[in-house]
């Protein structure tokens, strides 16, 4: 149920001497960690510990959805962007040419082409070249955007001229091989098997529903998409969860959904339109999160001085307080006016979260005597 709008959560106070400012503390309270939309990972863990299987878990967080099989087309993950020198090993094919898996090869940019070298010997010059070893992994030397140094990757590496003067590397692989490198990076691998399976389904659905980030790749290997670490990110428990849910995705009216997920809900998730904007989605509505209280961020509070609130929130004139304009399906503040001595400034809950450095959008801000 929505809370009444125009609720005043902080009494407006008149200008006061500096000593009074020092004695006033603004306490910001809330619950949860993350954006609050879709699957709550701690909540899923709690449901799993209390006997729910992964199908019941995902259908709780994504209302009205069905489980179906994903298409078999490969997915593409950016590993390196416009790197001046790319080194790799473990491949048996460099485009149409045979390669030695024990050798290390170097790729550099020459004009609009990629030149692959073995030592000083030129292997070939390509507009775009795919390097791989069937049914094996390839090692990309140096530190990739995954954060992994000299990491191994399933599938193929596609090398092409980057937008700058270097070579861009994209990992092209089947969806389940990709998800193996995601699940343990997004959820602790020691967690309950049913929670890991729910995470695998959510991550796979999110990947399949996402629009390509460019003509060259579909996903970043970080939180701009999902965290992906390749083989270095795999664990036995999470790989087992991926196999147990092989190619399963969540759909609504036949279309794969954007299955958002996050850490902690604080007891209730939020409607997607209240956080990311856009149209409401019937499968991304706020739902009670019964077992989320196992999270260390289930409830939290932070304290600020008046001068800090003034500097962070940018009220016209000097800071006076906060007036809530709208709440969401949960207690989260969706819109509020920051009240100053010279007027008001409208902010969203996510903006309050960002400016105040909070774990999630706040549910209350009160002025208290220190």
The rounded distance between the terminal residues' Cα atoms is 34 Å
- Return the structural class: alpha+beta
Q: Give the low-confidence spans.
A: 1-20
Question: Oligomeric state of the chains?
Answer: single chain
Strand content: 25-35%
Number of strands: 23
| Main β sheet profile | 6 strands, antiparallel
CA-atom Rg in angstroms: 25 Å
The number of helical segments is 9
Compute the number of structural domains: 3
What does this structure look like?
The structure is a single chain. The chain is built from 9 helices and 23 strands. The chain has 3 domains: 18-31 and 299-369, no CATH class; 39-72 and 176-293, no CATH class; 75-173, no CATH class. 22% of the residues lie in helices and 33% in strands. The model is unreliable at 1-20 (pLDDT under 50). It is an alpha+beta fold and 370 residues long. Strands 4-15-14-11-6-7 form a 6-stranded antiparallel beta sheet. A 6-stranded antiparallel beta sheet has the order 10-9-8-5-12-13, with no helix packed on it.
Features:
370 residues, alpha+beta, 3 domains, six-stranded antiparallel β-sheet, 9 helices, globular, disordered N terminus
Summarize the structure.
By secondary structure, the protein is an alpha+beta fold. It has helices spanning 18-23, 41-49, 54-61, 175-186, 193-209, 236-244, 272-276, 306-313, 349-356; strands at 24-30, 39-40, 66-69, 75-83, 85-89, 93-94, 97-98, 104-110, 113-118, 121-126, 129-132, 138-143, 149-153, 156-161, 167-173, 248-252, 255-256, 261-262, 300-305, 319-327, 333-340, 343-348, 364-369.
């Amino acid at each position: 149920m929505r809370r009444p709008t125009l609720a005043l959560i902080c009494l407006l106070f008149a200008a006061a001497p500096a000593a009074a400012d020092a004695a006033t503390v603004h306490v910001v309270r809330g619950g949860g960690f993350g954006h609050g939309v879709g699957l709550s990972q701690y909540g899923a863990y709690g449901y799993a510990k209390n006997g729910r299987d992964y199908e019941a878990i995902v259908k709780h967080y994504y209302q009205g959805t069905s489980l179906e099989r994903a298409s078999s087309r490969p997915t593409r993950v950016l590993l390196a962007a416009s790197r001046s020198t790319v080194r790799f090993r473990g491949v048996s094919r460099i485009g149409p040419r045979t390669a030695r898996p024990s050798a290390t090869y170097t790729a550099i940019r020459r004009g609009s082409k990629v030149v692959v070298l073995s030592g000083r010997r030129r292997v070939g010059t390509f507009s775009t070249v795919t390097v791989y070893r069937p049914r094996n992994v390839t090692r990309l030397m140096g530190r990739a955007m995954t954060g992994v140094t000299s990491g191994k990757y399933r599938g193929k590496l596609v090398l092409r001229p980057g937008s700058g003067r270097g070579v861009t590397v994209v990992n092209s692989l089947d969806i389940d091989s990709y998800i193996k490198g995601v699940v343990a990076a997004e959820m602790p691998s020691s967690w309950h098997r049913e929670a890991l399976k729910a995470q695998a389904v959510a991550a796979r659905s999110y990947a399949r529903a996402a629009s390509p980030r460019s003509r060259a790749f579909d996903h970043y290997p970080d939180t701009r998409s999902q965290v992906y670490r390749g083989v270095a990110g795999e664990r036995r428990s999470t790989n087992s969860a991926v196999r147990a849910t092989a190619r399963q995705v969540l759909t609504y009216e036949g279309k794969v959904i954007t299955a958002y997920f996050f850490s902690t809900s604080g007891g209730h998730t939020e409607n997607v339109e209240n956080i990311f904007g856009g149209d409401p989605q019937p499968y991304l509505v706020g739902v009670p999160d019964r077992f989320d209280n196992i999270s260390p961020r289930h409830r939290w509070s932070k304290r600020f001085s008046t001068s800090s609130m003034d500097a962070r929130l940018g009220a016209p004139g000097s800071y006076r307080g906060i007036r809530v304009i709208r709440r969401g399906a949960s207690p989260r503040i969706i819109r509020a006016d920051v009240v100053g001595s010279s007027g008001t400034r409208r902010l969203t809950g996510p903006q309050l979260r960002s400016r105040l450095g909070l774990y999630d959008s706040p549910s209350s801000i009160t002025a208290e005597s220190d």
